[in-house]
Design a protein that fits this description.
Layout (H helix, E strand, L loop, with lengths): L20 H32 L2 E2 L8 E2 L3 H8 L3 H30 L6 H9 L6 H11 L6 H8 L11 H29 L3 H9 L4 H29 L3 H6 L12 H11 L3 H30 L8 H20 L4 H15 L1
Antiparallel strand pairs: 1-2
Family: Belongs to the binding-protein-dependent transport system permease family.
Main location: membrane
GO cellular component, one term: plasma membrane
Length: 354
């Protein structure tokens, strides 16, 4: 009598993906507290803010009125909206481009062996750790049109001092330069760390091949810094888009009402000065959607550049192969060599081409 095969019972000491239950417990213990804090202090306020944007609510009133998309229609229809958007874009583009270009230039300079370079590195990074409000107070004296440092310097050069606190254009330039000075140390340190982690043999090979400094920088150095540049473009963009303290201390969004008002400062004005929390939540939601779209686009660009590309034969070699093939085809066509010789040469040249 044949015995039936024994049934293999599933193991109960492993989870659904074949890992021991202890690994899942360790994972939950490590990620659980952080995930709970993230949900409590980031995602839940985000959802509440989006929900509040569909209501008209005075923060001094216990009740809120549902208005649907009314706040969004009002924001797109207001006369000052596009000036505020323009201020935000101009401030963000100037600070992102300026801090990244100057940070890279300073990192290239101080990556060399120079006397006192550690002291200069520390001095460049120090403003980044200073409070933005303190920086704003200090630079009020720098740009003061009556006795500021800029006024004294321009007087010595025989130039007129712009009225930074009355002219909206110069006021925006003032807060942009102030934030650029504060944030420059961040991009400088990140680029400096990236430069010190590069492979020196690539630059040495370029120098041996006779490449100029500009060619080596453009063809060898910049491609290696591309991941760092993508990272900085995202982080600096997010930080610049949300600057509040310097603008609040130096100009309070003025002059002339909205001369330096950005979208972040508009959220503060509407929510805590005009007591329109629903409208302020609307502006914050629009900011979130814009930043999300820009960040996703930048991340996709980074992923596309990191994807492996098919190897291409160098242009000069491809040209030689095509020239040999054309010459060989002409010889065979006019009958200057036998068909066997054509076959032999074709095989050899195919091997060379490969």
């Amino acid at each position: 009598m044949r015995s039936s095969p024994e049934r293999v019972l599933p193991r109960t000491d492993r989870g659904p993906w074949g890992r021991p239950w202890g690994d899942y417990a360790l994972f939950a213990a490590l990620i659980g507290p952080n995930l709970a804090l993230l949900v409590l202090f980031t995602y839940r306020p985000l959802v509440d803010n989006i929900r509040l944007s569909f209501f008209e609510w005075n923060i001094s009133s216990p009740t809120a009125t549902f208005v649907g998309l009314g706040n969004y229609r009002e924001w797109f229809g207001r006369a000052d909206t596009w000036q505020i958007v323009g201020n935000t874009v101009a401030f963000t583009v100037a600070t992102v481009a300026g801090s990244m270009l100057l940070g890279l230039a300073l990192a290239l300079l101080l990556d060399r062996k120079l006397l006192g370079r550690n002291l200069v590195r520390s001095a460049l990074f120090a403003p980044f750790v200073i409070s933005g409000a303190a920086v704003g107070v200090a630079f009020q004296f720098v740009f003061d049109p009556n006795f500021g440092l800029v006024q004294d310097l321009l007087d010595r050069l025989g130039l007129n001092t712009p009225d930074f606190y009355q002219d909206p254009t110069w006021a925006l330039v003032m807060v942009t330069l102030t934030y650029l000075w504060k944030n420059l140390g961040y991009t400088f340190v990140i680029y400096l760390a990236a430069l010190q982690g590069l492979r020196p043999e690539l630059s040495e090979a370029a120098a041996i091949d006779g490449a100029s400094s500009w060619t080596a920088f453009r063809r060898v150095l910049l491609p290696q810094l591309r991941p760092t540049t993508y990272f900085l473009s995202i982080t600096v963009l997010l930080n610049s888009f949300q600057v509040f303290d310097i603008i609040n201390v130096m100009t309070r969004g003025g002059p002339l009402g909205t001369g330096t008002t950005t979208m972040v400062y508009q959220v503060y004005n509407e929510s805590f000065r005009n007591f329109r929390a629903g409208y302020g939540a609307t502006v914050a939601t629009i900011m979130f959607l814009v930043l999300l779209a820009v960040t996703v686009y930048q991340v996709r660009l980074m992923d596309r550049d990191d994807a492996p590309r098919p190897a291409r034969r160098p242009r000069r070699v491809r040209g030689r192969v095509r020239a040999h093939a054309r010459a060989h085809a002409t010889e065979c066509h006019i009958g200057s060599i036998t068909s066997n010789q054509c076959d032999i040469r074709s095989g050899r040249r195919a091997g060379v081409a490969e």
